[in-house]
Amino acid sequence: MDRKRWYICGITALFIVFAGIIFYLNNTELPITNTLKGTEEFSAEIIAMDTYITMTAYGEYAESALTDAQEKIRKLEQLWSVTDERSDIYSINHGNGQAVEVSDETADLLAFALDMAAKTDGALEPTIYPVMTAWGFTAGQNRIPSEDELQYLLQNVDYKKVHLNGSEITLPVGMQLDFGAVGKGYAGDVVAALLKEEGVTSALLSLGGNIQAVGSKPDGTDWRLGLRDPFSEGLFGIVSVSDMAVVTSGNYERYFVGEDGVKYGHIIDPSTGYPAENGLASVSVIAAEGKLCDALATALFVMGLEKATDFWRQYQNFDMILVTEEAEIYLTEGIKERFSLDSSHSSVSVNVITDG
Ligand code: ADP
Ligand code: MG
User: Fold this and answer.
1) Is the pLDDT assigned to residue 338 strictly greater than 80?
2) Is the CB of 105 within 6 Å of ligand 1?
3) Crossing angle of the two packed helices 290-303 and 104-119, in degrees rounded to 10
4) Which residue of 4, 193, 197, 348 is surrounded by the most CB atoms within 10 Å?
């Protein structure tokens, strides 16, 4: 009898304890650190690849991932510096016609650059470096080379003569490579992948004119990215995107004014050796991959409106927003709904490029 009573008392006590626990859990908020960490913001700034790079990432993995991202950017910079004697690019450019063994990343980026050079019919020209040097863009002491000098240098500008065999690269003597037009885009892809691997689902990277959005904003909405007005300090428009790269090229940021009063920009038309002057003031390319955006922003700027339009109609694996020297805007139909003019430019004409 006693035993039975104790038994009932024990079960009742246990029941009360469990009921208490369930009541407690239902009426207590979840551990507050989680919700707080969900919106935690971390930023990192770094000067590398000749540009000011900023990275902002959100969430509990953001801080350590950004540390690794900085390290990765430094490593890529070391591979592709044209001046650092330990870099892959330096070894290739000083290979005296001999095969040079390079890292996987360098071989991968070169393969991509050569492919894009072929697709753009040499508008993207990874061997343009000696011409850049002649214009003084590499040493920061600008000058206007003579027509003869340019023609002479152009004899050694030809991506078709670059030999890539696995991870071995051979350049003819006198030829030089430079990843200035594609390196930052590729680096953006590598860093975006690294952040995702380390658990970051929301981040924004800015490498000079290259923006790379990882996921969407922490609140789940699109990132709203400003597009620089090539004619003033302000913005001409905004694009709303998630998980995309947006890369802008133009001759309005890095240029010099010659003794003849003419403006000379840093994107070279490889068919002439002169800075590209094909009626465009800026080109923004929007696609998932930063390297594609970067390569195309440079190449389409060289091509000009008409050829760029033909190119888009042929491939259509990207969107573009072109600003002409007359300050008109041309954009492809896929980006139309995601683009809006800045209030300061509400009267500018926007032309939509369609399939047909
Ligand atoms: P930025 O470096 O300002 O973002 P780009 O991506 O357009 O601009 O790259 C321009 C750089 O690429 C130049 O500074 C030069 O090093 C190199 N370059 C210039 N003209 C060409 C070209 N036609 N093809 C490939 N690289 C180029
Ligand atoms: Mg580029």
Assistant:
1) yes
2) no
3) 40
4) 348
As a whole number of angstroms, the distance between CA 232 and CA 25 comes to 58
Distance (Å, whole) CA 190 – CA 345: 35
C-alpha distance from residue 237 to each of 56, 240, 319, 346 (Å): 22, 10, 15, 9
The predicted-structure confidence for 23-60, as pLDDT tens digits, reads as follows 544 443 333 233 444 479 999 999 999 999 999 999 99
Q: Enumerate residues 6+ apart whose C-beta is below 8 A from 182.
A: 109, 112, 113, 116, 124, 126, 291, 294, 295, 298
User: Using 50, 70 and 90 to split pLDDT, how confident is the model at 21?
Assistant: low
Ligand number nearest CA of 299 is: 1
- Confidence category of residue 6, pLDDT binned at 50, 70, 90: confident
- 63 C-alpha to ligand 1 centroid (Å): 32
Q: Which atom of ligand 1 is nearest to the CA of 113?
A: 25
Q: Name the residue among 175, 193, 171, 166 with its Cα closest to residue 76.
A: 193
Q: State the ligand closest to the CA atom of 120.
A: 1
d(CA 199, CA 220): 16
Among protein residues, the one whose CA lies closest to atom 10 of ligand 1:
181
Q: Is 98 exposed, middle or buried (0-12, 13-18, 19+ CB in 10 A)?
A: exposed
CB-based contact 117:186 (threshold 8 Å): no
What is the reported pLDDT for 225?
A: 98
pLDDT of residue 4: 73
Sign of CA dihedral 269, 317, 167, 190: positive
Q: Which residue's C-alpha comes closest to atom 27 of ligand 1?
A: 181
Q: Judge if the beta carbon of residue 180 lies within 6 A of ligand 1.
A: yes
Residue 146 in this model has a pLDDT that exceeds 80: yes
State whether the beta carbon of 267 lies less than 6 angstroms from ligand 1.
Answer: yes
User: Rounded to the nearest whole angstrom, what is the distance from the C-alpha of residue 320 to the centroid of ligand 2?
Assistant: 13
Cα(167)–Cα(296) distance, integer angstroms:
25
